[in-house]
Amino acid sequence: MDGTQRPSPLDRVLRLFTDVRAGEGRSVLLLALNIFVLLTAYYVLKPIREALILGEAGPEFKAYAAAAMAILLVPLAATYGKLADRYPRRRLINVVTLFFVACIVVFYLLGQAGMSTGLVFFIWMGIFNVMVVAQFWAFANDVYTNEEGERLFPIVQVGGAAGAIVGAATVGQLIEPLGLFIPMLIAGGLLLLSLLITYHVDRRERARTEAMLPLGETTAMSPAATGEFRLDTGEFKNLREAVKEALERLEAGEDLEAEEPADEPEAGPAREPAFTATGAFQLVLRTRYLLFIGLLIVLLNWVNTNGENLLGFIVTDAANQAMAQGTLGGLDQRQFIGAFYSDFFFGVNVLALLLQLFVVSRVIKHFGVHVAIMILPVIAMGAYGLVAAVPALGYLRWAKTAENSTDYSLQNTVRHTLFLPTTREQKYKAKQVIDSFFWRVGDTLAGVTVLVVTSLLASNVRYFALLNMVLLAAWLFLAYRIGRMYKQLVASGRPPVTRPPRRAG
């Protein structure tokens, strides 16, 4: 970026929320608009999903669906990785997004024909949500350097928080006059709009950082999943060359211990790791940094879903008690529960948006990503410790409000920031595996937890809280390790190394 460029009025306005430098405002606002559109589309579809699954299959099928999603995501994530090996980033995003738009059109036509689609649509939604959002954040990681992403991702995530609120607030206004199926087409139109926004961001960022390169060497032509990583200057460097340089320096006797990431290879004969065209799952399993992030995502979703199930048990019990005591105030049980969740979700989303606007960027700036990643497990540990001691609805409501709002704001921003120092291959392929498959594994484990607690432990809600305390201890340890590794990777200026497969013999 030209150091003499003066900040625009947009840049100055965005500085109220984070450190936006001259010329950065337009792209970061477009990225925020992009995730806003995607999350709005998802929240338009989400109530339709609930209406179809509860109306056709019943609530018990939701637990089975989580396991089905995890199983289906194995071949889907692997296929996505193969597409990333073949297509440039913009074409990859176009192909995947248009596929999901086509699926929406098919569901619309089936619904209009009166066919039952509830269970299939529920599973499809669980796959659509994680894959499209992971793809967006892979692209955002691809256009920014480590330093830029740490400063600007808090603004980008504001778009996601606002999209969740707007989508949830407007879908009820759409369903009543239009029915369940026409809003599907509105969501599909929003996905097409996201492609236009991606086009403008991609063109703008390539002009900023790749204008001096021949077209064939730019991200417009090269596959999305390459072994390149972005330097602080905005230029790309090949990982193979960077590792060879490090090995040569080590063999020359230079002390690089202070700047080496935790999974950098030791000095020795130069090896040729498979930096490109590595299977998506193998990429995660052979890269310690990525595997740790995947395990953290499993624990995060397991703990959060356990907490949601715990809240569901206590709210239902409170509704039953209020009915027995005649204190429902003219409501029936379902209305009582619906009113509680409406207030709860509104409070969580508003607090998450406020945290995103005024707190997240300042935490990352003053304390760093390595500290920010440990804040949510600390908050959650205090929350579930309180609930384990006093499992009352009032305490749990505010504990879950603190946990969920921090998760939707600070934790979401930080977990996407963790991919800034990775290679393009790791961004597009590994992030898809982690944010989709590992996420659904957490859902599945939470479903198993419900089965065990309800069938063997008489639905004692304290067991949910106590189990979460154990899981949170493991989560906090992983967060500490990941934060330390992230700090080392950024300091060294090199991405995590994927270990090659062991050779027979």
Biggest beta sheet summary:
2 strands, antiparallel
Strand order of the largest sheet: 1-2
Distance between the termini: 51 Å
Tell me, briefly, the overall form. Answer: globular
Total E-strand runs? 2
Bin the helical content.
over 70%
> Tally the helices: what do you get?
17
* Proportion of strand residues: under 5%
Radius of gyration computed on alpha carbons: 23 Å
Low-confidence stretches: 256-276
Order of helices and strands: HHHHHHHEEHHHHHHHHHH
Mean pLDDT comes to 85
- Judged by helices, strands and strand pairing, the structural class is mainly alpha
Describe it.
By secondary structure, the chain is an all-alpha fold. It is about 75% helix and about 0% strand. The protein has helices at about 10-15, 25-55, 60-85, 90-110, 120-145, 145-180, 180-210, 240-250, 280-285, 290-325, 335-360, 360-365, 370, 375-390, 395-415, 425-455, 460-490, and strands at about 230, 235-240. The protein has a two-stranded antiparallel sheet. The longest helix is centred in the middle third of the chain and has 38 residues, at about 290-325. The chain is globular and about 75 Å long. The model is unreliable at about 255-275 (pLDDT under 50).
SSE arrangement:
Layout (H helix, E strand, L loop, with lengths): L8 H6 L10 H32 L3 H27 L2 H24 L5 H26 L2 H33 L3 H28 L18 E3 L5 E3 H13 L28 H6 L2 H38 L7 H26 L1 H8 L1 H4 L2 H15 L3 H25 L6 H33 L4 H32 L13
Antiparallel strand pairs: 1-2
Supply database-style keywords.
505 residues; 2 strands
